[in-house]
Specification:
The strands form two sheets. The chain has a three-stranded antiparallel β-sheet with strand order 1-4-3. The chain has one domain. A hairpin with a 6-residue loop joins strand 3 and strand 4. By secondary structure, it is α+β, with helices and mostly antiparallel strands. It has two helices and five strands; from the N terminus they run αβαββββ. Pfam families: DUF4765. InterPro entries: DUF4765 (IPR031886). It comes from Salmonella enterica.
């Protein structure tokens, strides 16, 4: 089952509710700096539109994904996992 439209709206507004992904390379570039960029393949039936301005898509946390690429964009530094939420 995909994420409900209500949950997707809350994700866009507050963040950190369900995983959000983008189909826009420039958005992926911006958000992955000093992190890892993970490229996945997922069935469309699991996706719900997320942030329109970020070409975002949300999906349930237990969605089966097929990782097809991992790009290290940490530039040799420790990844900052405490970074502020981009949705706020």
């Amino acid at each position: 089952m995909p994420v409900s439209a209500e949950i997707a709206k809350e994700q866009v507004r507050s963040g950190r509710i369900v995983p959000e992904y983008t189909t826009d390379l420039s958005v992926a570039d911006r958000f992955s700096r000093e992190h890892y960029l993970i490229i996945v393949r997922v069935k469309v039936k699991y996706l719900t539109r997320g942030s329109v301005s970020e070409s975002g898509w949300v999906m349930p946390k237990n969605t089966p994904v097929d990782p097809v690429g991992i790009i290290d964009r940490t530039y040799g530094k420790a990844e900052n996992t405490g970074q502020a939420n981009a949705s706020k």
